[in-house]
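In response to the reviewer comment on reproducibility (Comment 2.3), we provide here a single inverse folding case reported in full, input and output, so that an independent group could reproduce the run without further information from us. The structure tokens appear first.
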């Protein structure tokens, strides 16, 4: 097959990474593979590498890109001037990549290439790339089909890794995809999303196209973290230097908001101001980068020593040491750390490092040789032990390192909620800590020992935790380890200026009548959305209301409830779009509130279109204001310190957040179907742009191995995803009961979410 590579970078970053990318491409890539380079800014440097298979283009000659940047220059990650730069809110930054890929797709197609491959410019090739390697990655699948798209998936990240994307140029499906991709920016539709990053947009589109039959290949389906590129087919040939590293910008002191045990490792380093780090089990160098960052937060000079088998690892050593991870070359880690040192040098900070390749039982002998340790600056005041897992290796690693002031060991396993734990042969750290060292002891004169608890799961059952040992009694107390939930921030659906104008005008009408946070209580909230099953559950809603529950509706369920004799206690309104416009259900929004009920409280978000509030005010409705947590509101200085309510992208999910703020912890949810009732009559209908109106999707019930199929829309699918995210959050202090049929009830039934038991052991049942 024939391949074309595309990359893009600003000329200002030529010396940072552009030059490295190009020189390594010339050295290691086949000469018959063309590289298209789209530069943001001209002229090119005088020493720019030239080759017959490299073409340079001025990205800023693209009129659509220039117009997008000019039209949306405020969306540059600094919408809130008082806050730090927000990577996810920088539409300008990410638009360059998308337009470059769009232009390159057609150039590659015209040149007769079968594949266009995007590579981030902050990557360096260090081993020969062959046609055989690329052909193997892009061959037909088991069904004899050529994929339309290849990508690097990540299970626990907000989106895929977009440092590599493969586009099949001969596929008409891929051509439609690339047009949809660039149109998200050209049409400004990207600004309606909760994240402007190109990989977030890519995932949203990919998911929709997969529903309609696009064939994709995920090179990294088992990647649990951010390191997808490293475990991809190109991972042992190319090193991606950027990843998730931030140079001396993040403090690890405080609560573990990231929710990983690796954050706690860095917190210990920063807490005790460590600056000479030893790591047994360097792997791909990412943990090393984070630990180095933590050390630089309290020192301008840091040294790192790493020990690993690297490419010496074999199937035999994997079996002996119970290793299940892919291995990386020593050279790839050297490149990462060298690039890291260059970045810190710009901040007048000095990073030195020394990597040892081989078995730690042999290589750690260097710690017994003061002369060699001095030569290589191996004077560790902190060690992270995460090498082999056999009892022999665990014990050996500890024996060599037991004199180091602060020790952290990975892979202390405990049972998960199902009582599962890894097999006995994996419990080398458990045996060392409990049987040899004597377990937790916070008061010993010799050393303090404790377990740093984690919620990090093991693939086949169990929880993996950290062991911490402090040998230096002068260091003082250890930091407090605990977690807090991470909240997802939704995106605004109209420009911030419009929203901010609405807030200013609405606040005048609210006249101080605003939602405030209240203490939790035993009241029950009945959230009523407008899915088809809501009508079938009218009597159940009435029954719950008669028992004292507070019915809270959205605009689309407002009239239906009143017509059936159920007067809502509250109606939640969250829509900055025109009041006279047509909703996604094909109804003029004003008609939904044609007859506001005098007993109903209308909870109006301050970002709501001002015409809605004026209308309800004129009708003498009970109006209570509230602030939705959005990027646009964060920019308003007058709202600093005000109660902001999180939730999702629609009023039904925000109703949950609002009632939680009012102290409710028991929720009954109706009508949140997020799907048509069966197969729609117009299942083949298309919109004005020729796109399918209905998306066919399925939810698999693992217990019955049955797939439940639904027809939904993009907006309803987003609501269902918001609800799924709610179930996945840690520490959700609410009890949920979901009624009806459709996507959300099915997601709830097939999820692992369980309501907490009441005191005495009986489960809560409402």
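Designed residues, in position order:
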């Amino acid at each position: 097959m024939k391949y074309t590579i595309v990359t893009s970078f600003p000329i200002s970053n030529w010396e940072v990474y552009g030059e490295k990318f190009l020189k390594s491409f010339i050295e290691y890539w086949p000469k018959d593979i063309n590289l298209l380079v789209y530069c943001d800014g001209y002229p090119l440097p005088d020493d720019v590498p030239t080759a017959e298979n490299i073409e340079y283009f001025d990205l800023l000659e693209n009129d659509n890109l220039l117009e997008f940047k000019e039209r949306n220059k405020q969306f540059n990650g600094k919408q809130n001037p008082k806050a730090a730069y927000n990577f996810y809110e920088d539409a300008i930054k990410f638009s360059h990549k998308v337009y470059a890929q769009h232009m390159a797709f057609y150039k590659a197609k015209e040149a007769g290439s079968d594949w266009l491959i995007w590579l981030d410019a902050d990557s360096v090739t260090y081993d020969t790339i062959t046609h055989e390697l690329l052909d193997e990655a892009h061959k037909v699948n088991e069904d004899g089909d050529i994929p339309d798209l290849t990508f690097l998936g990540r299970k626990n990240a907000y989106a895929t890794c977009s440092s590599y994307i493969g586009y099949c140029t001969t596929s008409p499906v891929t051509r439609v995809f690339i047009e949809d991709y660039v149109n998200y920016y050209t049409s400004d539709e990207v600004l309606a999303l909760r994240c402007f990053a190109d990989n977030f947009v890519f995932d949203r589109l990919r998911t929709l196209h997969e529903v309609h039959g696009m064939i994709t290949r995920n090179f990294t389906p088992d990647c649990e973290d951010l390191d997808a590129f490293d475990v991809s087919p190109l991972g042992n040939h190319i090193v991606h230097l950027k990843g998730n590293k931030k140079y001396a910008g993040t403090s690890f002191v405080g609560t573990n908001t990231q929710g990983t045990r690796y954050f706690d490792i860095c917190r210990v380093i920063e807490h005790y101001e460590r600056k000479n780090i030893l790591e047994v089990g360097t792997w791909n160098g990412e943990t090393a980068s984070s630990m180095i960052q933590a050390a630089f937060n309290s020192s301008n000079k840091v040294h790192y020593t790493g020990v690993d088998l690297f490419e010496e690892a074999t199937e035999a050593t994997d079996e002996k040491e119970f290793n299940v991870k892919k291995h990386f070359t020593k050279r790839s880690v050297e490149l990462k750390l060298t690039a890291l040192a260059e970045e810190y040098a710009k901040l007048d900070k000095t990073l030195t490092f020394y990597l040892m390749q081989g078995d730690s039982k042999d290589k750690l002998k260097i710690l017994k040789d003061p002369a060699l340790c001095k030569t290589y600056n191996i004077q560790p005041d902190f060690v992270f032990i995460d090498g082999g897992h056999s009892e022999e290796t665990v014990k050996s690693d500890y024996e060599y390192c037991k004199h180091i002031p602060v020790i952290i060991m990975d892979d202390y396993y405990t049972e998960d909620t199902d009582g599962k734990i890894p097999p006995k042969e994996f419990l080398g750290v458990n045996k060392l800590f409990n049987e040899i060292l004597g377990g937790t002891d916070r008061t010993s004169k010799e050393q303090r020992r404790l377990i740093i608890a984690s919620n990090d799961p093991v693939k086949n059952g169990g929880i993996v935790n950290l062991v911490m040992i402090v040998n230096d009694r002068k260091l003082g107390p250890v930091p407090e380890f605990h977690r807090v939930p991470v909240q997802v921030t939704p995106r605004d659906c109209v420009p911030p200026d419009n929203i901010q104008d609405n807030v200013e005008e609405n606040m005048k009408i609210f006249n101080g009548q605003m939602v405030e946070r209240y203490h939790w209580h035993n009241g029950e909230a009945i959230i009523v959305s407008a899915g088809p099953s809501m009508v079938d559950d009218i009597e159940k809603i009435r029954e719950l209301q008669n028992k004292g529950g507070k019915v809270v509706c959205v605009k689309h369920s407002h009239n239906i409830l009143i017509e059936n004799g159920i007067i809502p206690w509250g109606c939640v309104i969250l829509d900055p779009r025109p009041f006279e416009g047509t909703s996604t259900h094909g109804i003029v929004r004003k008609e939904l509130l044609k007859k506001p009920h005098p007993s109903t409280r209308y909870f109006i978000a301050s970002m709501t279109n001002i015409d809605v509030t004026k209308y309800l005010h004129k009708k003498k409705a009970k109006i209570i204001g509230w602030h939705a947590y959005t990027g646009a509101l964060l920019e308003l200085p007058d709202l600093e310190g005000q109660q902001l309510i999180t939730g999702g992208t629609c009023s039904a999910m925000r109703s949950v957040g609002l009632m939680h703020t009012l102290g409710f912890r028991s929720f009954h949810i109706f009508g949140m179907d997020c799907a048509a009732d069966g197969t729609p009559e117009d299942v083949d209908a298309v919109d004005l742009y020729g796109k399918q109106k209905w998306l066919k999707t399925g939810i698999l019930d693992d217990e019955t191995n049955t797939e439940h199929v639904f027809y939904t829309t993009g907006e309803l699918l987003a609501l269902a995803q918001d609800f799924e995210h709610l179930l996945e959050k840690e520490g959700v202090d609410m009890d949920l009961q979901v009624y009806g049929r459709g996507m959300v009830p099915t997601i709830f039934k097939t999820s692992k979410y369980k309501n907490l038991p009441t005191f005495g052991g009986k489960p809560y049942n409402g």
